Amino acid sequence: MVVGVGHTNQTNSKAHIEQAITVNVTPTVTSASPNSMPQGSGPTTVTINGGGFTNTGLSVSFSGTGVTTGSPTYVSATQITVPVTVAAGATIGLRDVTVTCSGQSGTGTGIFSVTAGKLDQTITVTTPAPSSAPYNSQFTVAATASSGLTVSYSSGTPAVCTNSGATFTMVNGTGTCTVRYDQAGNATYNAAPQVTNSVTATKIAQATVTVSAPASASYGQTGLSATASGGSGTGAYSYSAGSSTACTVNSSTGTLTITSGTGTCSITATRAADTNYNVSAASAPANVTITKATQATVTVSAPANAYYGQTGLSATASGGSGTGAYSYDAGSSTACSVNSSTGALTITSGTGTCSITATRAADANYNVSAASTPATVTITKATPTVTAWPTASAITYGQTLASSTLSGGSASTTGTFAFTTPATAPNAGTASQGVTFTPTDTTNYNTATGSVSVTVAKADPSVTAWPTASGITYGQTLASSTLTGGSSTPAGTFAFTAPATAPDAGTASQGVTFTPADTTNYNAATGSVSVTVAKADPSVTAWPTASAITYGQTLAASTLSGGSSTPAGTFAFTTPATAPTAGTASQGVTFTPTDTANYNTATGSVSVTVAKADPSVTAWPTASGITYGQTLASSTLTGGSSTPAGTFAFTAPATAPDAGTA
């Protein structure tokens, strides 16, 4: 890109102009690496060196025919790579290399050449390998090449055969040995096609196998084994007891099992085939002399304890060995006998000794056992069986079990029933209490214990003094009255039976319940106390209003209206005969409730307005004469009477009336 800048000196100003100009550079091609390839080769990556390379429209071509290229790869402005293939019939000689990019082309003249190709050759086997060969054997092969070059030999299966030159050794008895014939070629000849021979590997016979075993063994003896040795290869040994009648052998481990105390035991061994050796022949037999075994220890068990007359008892033997039967013996026991075959015990006395031993008989594999350690049975008295326990009569809390009568009951022998702890005073409720059965025959029988249900009723408390109740006001419930005092056995609390009751005014008996602190064993008790209920004061929420009266009237002439209270009732002047003076003043009012049995009266006041009264004039006065021009004030009024007393005067004394009488 070229930037042009223009300047002007007019009025000291400057002009700055930029313009982009694209310049395409022609690539140059200087060398190729590699700079030659033989006929019939490729594709091979050839590096083209030079300059001015770009990745725009990049392509590479070679002059002449028979040389083709793949897609070039741009590496840098000085280097590109391209895959090149030279046909087998391409003309030998120099070639020009042309690189085109960004619409421009550059050519490197004669920088690459096509060279002549190599000649082919073949291999002929003159001494082939055998079709099969045994393990560890050798054979020799031979071959020639048509080029006269030396043929090389190798094993394609080194796990089956190896070689030293033309001599091959079979290193495995299984598989196929591949013999390979090769000629690698040189500057003139191409490598010859490989030729191979296949040789089947075969196994060979093993050396003699021997086996050893214990000279003698007894039935059931453990830890015995046969051991093999010899043979060839890596095959496992296997063991066989053949037609033996007194033993078996584990075919893999050689472990012996003696299956009988009589008979024969003869062991042979073989070794398995492996990749190189066939299975071996059986070894000579190892003979084992068989004898009977000594039995394991016999043990006998018997009940640790037994009582006189007890049945269904047995001694039981275990242990020993084989199939022989057990036999039992009581020896010098004084309190028992035993069945020698079944071990059944008979307890013949309540005192004395009982000791049992056992042995196990011989069988085909074991000798008779030694006698067991004795099992000792402790003899005790019999315990009677109680088939029905008695019933107990009920008692009241505070009484002992001695107050309860036991009746009924039955047992396997005669005897009596009694409470085990007769002095016990149980709590109220029903509970089991111990009972002891004492047999009549205490020499041969123990006592027996059991239990019976005893019902204990709650006791009534003794209230020696009921409490006193504080007074309340009508409308309050008994819960507002305080109970004080009172005494009882046992301790407890007093409370009104119906505390939500709101009694009428007056004095009346009210129910009280005594609750004992020990409610488990005591009932509650009820009684009564006197409760005084005072009358309640009514609640006047609004006093009435009084109608106005005229002076001279009594309050009875005033009407009271409105007013509200709880409870309902009536309002009236406290002193209805009072005749108040004119004006407005408070006057006493009494509220009387409808329910006077439970409520007091209430007093208050209301404002009463008293208007002035008109006087009663029974005779008006006479007026003296005056002269025209005089005012009425000059006329004298005389006489006149009225109720109440008062004075008479002209209403308009300044008036000067006309002459005449008016």
Verbal overview:
The protein is mainly beta. It is 0% helix and 45% strand. The strands form 24 sheets. Strands 1, 3, 5, 6 and 7 form a 5-stranded antiparallel β-sheet that branches. The protein has a 4-stranded mixed β-sheet with strand order 2-9-8-4, with no helix packed on it. A 4-stranded mixed β-sheet has the order 11-18-17-14, with no helix packed on it. Strand 6 and strand 7 (79-86) form a beta hairpin.
Keywords summarizing the entry:
65 strands, mainly beta, single chain
Present the secondary structure layout.
Blueprint: E1 28-33, E2 36-38, E3 41-51, E4 59-62, E5 67-69, E6 73-76, E7 79-86, E8 93-101, E9 104-115, E10 123-127, E11 132-134, E12 138-140, E13 142-145, E14 152-155, E15 161-164, E16 167-170, E17 176-182, E18 195-202, E19 209-212, E20 216-218, E21 227-230, E22 237-240, E23 247-249, E24 256-258, E25 266-271, E26 286-287, E27 289-291, E28 298-301, E29 305-307, E30 313-314, E31 316-319, E32 326-329, E33 336-338, E34 344-347, E35 355-360, E36 375-376, E37 378-380, E38 386-388, E39 391-392, E40 395-396, E41 406-407, E42 410-411, E43 415-419, E44 429-439, E45 448-457, E46 462-465, E47 468-469, E48 472-473, E49 483-484, E50 487-489, E51 492-496, E52 506-516, E53 525-534, E54 539-542, E55 545-546, E56 549-550, E57 560-561, E58 564-566, E59 569-573, E60 583-593, E61 602-611, E62 616-619, E63 622-623, E64 637-638, E65 641-643
Parallel strand pairs: 2-9, 11-18, 20-27, 29-37, 40-45, 48-53, 56-61
Antiparallel strand pairs: 1-3, 3-7, 4-8, 5-7, 6-7, 8-9, 10-13, 12-16, 14-17, 15-16, 17-18, 19-21, 22-25, 23-24, 25-26, 28-31, 30-34, 32-35, 33-34, 35-36, 38-42, 39-41, 43-44, 44-45, 46-50, 47-49, 51-52, 52-53, 54-58, 55-57, 59-60, 60-61, 62-65, 63-64
